[in-house]
From TrEMBL:
PANTHER family assigned to the protein according to its UniProt record, in alphabetical order: FLAVODOXIN_FERREDOXIN--NADP REDUCTASE, OXIDOREDUCTASE FAD/NAD(P)-BINDING DOMAIN PROTEIN
Keyword terms: FAD, Flavoprotein, NADP, Nucleotide-binding, Oxidoreductase
SUPFAM superfamilies assigned: Ferredoxin reductase-like, C-terminal NADP-linked domain (SSF52343), Riboflavin synthase domain-like (SSF63380)
MF (Gene Ontology): ferredoxin-NADP+ reductase activity; nucleotide binding
Protein name (record): ferredoxin--NADP(+) reductase
Enzyme class: oxidoreductase
Amino acid sequence: MTGIIRTTWHNAEVLSNQHWTARLLTLRIRTESLPFIAGQFVTLRLPIPTADGTELVAKSYSLINAPDEEALEIFYNIVPNGKLSNALARLQPGDSLEISQPAKGFFVLDEIPAVPNLWMIATGTGLGPYLSILKTAQAWQRFQKIVLVHGVPLVNELAYAELIDTFVTQYPEQFRFISCVTREANPHGLEGRITTHLESGTLEQMAGTTIAADDTHVMLCGNHNMLNDMKALLGNRGMQRHLRHKPGHITTEQYF
């Protein structure tokens, strides 16, 4: 019988805590060696003051850095009244927090069937695990075409533009990036919801490739509304959720 791998907690030091907007941040931390597969997540933990003392509050976050990068990077948003996210946002360089080991999760390329085309569709901070994956050689060696779609309410929430531009420059025939902004004009992409542009065909037209069950796998990462709507639309194309015991076309990771 395979032994249960137990979670252990380790100290981490804050290197930086960068604001993209008032509510979107990137936390960079340093800890002892933490092996992981691109796309996996860790849990962060902090003591939060309460009326009776302190309370340990924890939440899971995907890693954005590549597995061979020393600093760990977390892309997160401040949740209104969220105990941990507000505490994380107050962290300064040199502060400490706890991080779980080992990293966990199956939102990784090793779980994706062999197909020519990979679509990575995200809303908000759901962009994070894709950036880690795209920093690895495996992504570019496995797929003929990779399409990254990122949906946000406002243009200034399109974080990591410079990093994404490096992928566009390095893999001009293999990679496409499409942004969708719902609440204002988008000078460099689409306006409206991702699902609207999938239904209209605009998404595939901009990508220069189709989403079809016979040659495509779709990764979905973001809020539950996007996941549910996308799964329904993809289901109309004969695509179903991918499971280890039942291969399919859709792999999901829900962000709350």
